[in-house]
Amino acid sequence: MKLHPIDDRVVIKALESETKTKGGIVLPDTAKEKPQRGEVIAVGRGKMLESGKIVEPTLGKGDKVLFGKYAGTEIKVDGVEYTIMRESDVLAKID
Amino acid sequence: MKLHPIDDRVVIKALESETKTKGGIVLPDTAKEKPQRGEVIAVGRGKMLESGKIVEPTLGKGDKVLFGKYAGTEIKVDGVEYTIMRESDVLAKID
Amino acid sequence: MKLHPIDDRVVIKALESETKTKGGIVLPDTAKEKPQRGEVIAVGRGKMLESGKIVEPTLGKGDKVLFGKYAGTEIKVDGVEYTIMRESDVLAKID
Amino acid sequence: MKLHPIDDRVVIKALESETKTKGGIVLPDTAKEKPQRGEVIAVGRGKMLESGKIVEPTLGKGDKVLFGKYAGTEIKVDGVEYTIMRESDVLAKID
Amino acid sequence: MKLHPIDDRVVIKALESETKTKGGIVLPDTAKEKPQRGEVIAVGRGKMLESGKIVEPTLGKGDKVLFGKYAGTEIKVDGVEYTIMRESDVLAKID
Amino acid sequence: MKLHPIDDRVVIKALESETKTKGGIVLPDTAKEKPQRGEVIAVGRGKMLESGKIVEPTLGKGDKVLFGKYAGTEIKVDGVEYTIMRESDVLAKID
Amino acid sequence: MKLHPIDDRVVIKALESETKTKGGIVLPDTAKEKPQRGEVIAVGRGKMLESGKIVEPTLGKGDKVLFGKYAGTEIKVDGVEYTIMRESDVLAKID
Questions:
Q1: Chain segment C19-45, per-residue pLDDT in tens
Q2: Is ipTM > 0.95 here?
Q3: Nearest chain A CA: its distance from G21 CA (Å)
Q4: Hey, what CATH topology would domain B9-17+34-94 get?
Q5: Which of A35, C88, D4, D32 is the most exposed place for a label (fewest CB within 10 A)?
Q6: Closest chain G residue to A92 measured between Cα atoms?
């Protein structure tokens, strides 16, 4: 199944944070922080300005990004959790 | 009866999520999650920009879409539940 | 008495939902849902854009419409209840 | 004393709703609904658009209008209660 | 000390409401309503439009005005209470 | 250390209100009102309009100003308390 | 790992406030105030105006800045805490 975000939205799949502590202890799920790092799975056509002009997205498929804990909408598709948000709600690209 | 959404609204009919667990157990209604997947039943003429120009909708009848749990307004017409929202509140088209 | 809504407002008279259940039982008032279907009684001259230009309403007198439970302002005129809202708060026209 | 509303405001004097029930019983003040019908006493010069242009008001002195229960600001001048609101908060003109 | 309000603000000195009842009884302070009538003490240079153009204020020093109970910011200067608000928050000029 | 406010912000150092009552009694800190008078220590380059044009600030270093109790952000730099706010949140200049 | 903030965002690394009191006592973490001073680690391409034009950021890598206690989003990358906010939410540059 393919996802086509509307407008300037991006679909992000969270990248799990490290589940081992520095001392090598594997953390249970409840002790893990909500991930704020993810990979862009799909991007929309971009934002429409008041003039009707479309601004191309700056992010692309495969980009690694940071996002806030409360940004976007979480949605499960075929058992996989995604977070969909507007590109302007993404904090930063990382590489 | 035919529905003609106002402006850039779309009428969506929710697609029920799977009511069987992976182990084959049929879930009762109360154990099911609120569906976030639906089919577009009707679209409006599009959004009006401040210039008065109408922007054609990008979604069309029959499109499968994802939407947030709290997006739009639910309304029952002839016993059928619909969710009506602005196109920009739809998260993504799926195919 | 005639009503002339201001700007892009419309005056709607609610159409009572069916008060009989499928089994033919007449429901008391308290068991009825707040109606979300109505008939347009009057429309304003339309919305003014920032340029000062007036955009003609798309709805007209006699149109049947759907609206959200919390949309608009209810007002009683000569003992009759109306709901007055901006055209853009109407969800859809039905026919 | 004369009132000159600022911008696109209008000064409205509420018209008391009927204080007799259909059966002819005079209602005490506490049993009366807050009036939502009034007469326009004064209008401002109109709304200023972002361009600086003034849009003339559509309402005029003497117009009978409907307004929401929570619209505008109530103010007592020389013992008389007025409601002052922007013209766009008036719901409809009646005649 | 002279006050120069910023932008489209006006400085208002409240005019005390009558402290005698119609029957001639002098009311204690706690029984008086918060005044909503005042005199304009100073006006700013006016509102800046998005184009950068300044719109001259319509109110001037000495004007008597009405304002809402919760409008503006109260500030004490040399022991005197003033209310400073944007001109567009003033309800009406009175004369 | 020098402060360069961003955009149309101004840095204000509060001027303590008189700590003696008219009768000459020195008030303890807790009995003093939060000061609402201050001196402008630094100004930014000004506000950017939607056109990208910068509007020069009207306030300058050394100006005495009035501001609301809840305006701006308080920040301590090298042990000194400053309030930083947008110029449009300053109520008035005093001289 | 490199951070590329989206739009007009900046990535800031907090500069710890002094942990010694004037008397030379080292303060434990819980007694320290949340830092409001930081160093800019990375800046985005700038803010997009409604016309689609990009406005270059005024801050650059290495700038020391002040920010409000509740500004921006905190995010941990490789064990280091950063605060990411829009440039317009930064209060002032210091030098």
A1: 555 666 665 555 556 779 999 999 999
A2: no
A3: 33
A4: 10 Kd Chaperonin, Protein Cpn10; Chain O (2.30.33)
A5: D32
A6: G5
